[in-house]
Amino acid sequence: MRGIIKLLVDKITIKLDSGELHAGQVGGQSVLIGDETTRPADTTAYAAGDAISATVSDTGTTALRSLAVGRKVGGTGYLTKFRLMTNQAACVAMIKVHFYNVAAPTGPIVGDNVQMTLLYLNKSQRIGSIILPSLATSTVAGGSTASVAQDDTTRMHFKCAVADQNIYYRLETLSIFTPADSQKFYMEVAAEQD
Fold first, then answer.
1. Mean pLDDT across the stretch 56-75?
2. Which class for 38: exposed (0-12), middle (13-18), buried (19 or more C-beta within 10 A)?
3. I need a labelling partner for 180 at 20 to 30 A (CA). Which of 25, 41, 128, 164 fits?
4. Is residue 161 part of a domain?
5. Phi and psi of 72, rounded to 5°?
6. Which range marks the domain in which residue 70 is found?
7. What gap in Å lies between CA 100 and CA 79, rounded to an integer?
8. How many domains does the chain have?
9. Confidence band (pLDDT; 50, 70, 90) for 8?
């Protein structure tokens, strides 16, 4: 019997993927990740198709915002929930969220209040995009200080870059609206990690 067990043990090998700190996990896990950004201190109206960012730049020098969704470096998984809140209760804009696997794509992504562009040059760095429903505030009671949009039905595959556990995003308004000075936006995603 000992000979059989020794033979079986000799045949077992354990392989650890790069970035793993443990062995034996079966399956993935789900995490909730959020990020808050504050737009510039002005009330310059947005045109439909303008980027919403922390810094005004038409050269794309403003890095995209990050969400740490990877279980490990170069990790993969699925985004399964998207929630956007803003501290301007009257904001009813429809927002598109663009996702990338690098903070600064090869073809620059524009900054605040500049028309968004979709660049073919970024094809391997772009994960995809989602159009959220229009932001809305509570109609049940007065005193609201926020508006929110949420999507629980989209399932978007992601793959982090080889040396990264983050994905990155930029907001684009599909509606004309006048923002508040230093208006805040909170982006939250749920991720099923492989």
1. 85
2. exposed
3. 128
4. yes
5. -145, 175
6. 28-193
7. 13
8. 1
9. very low
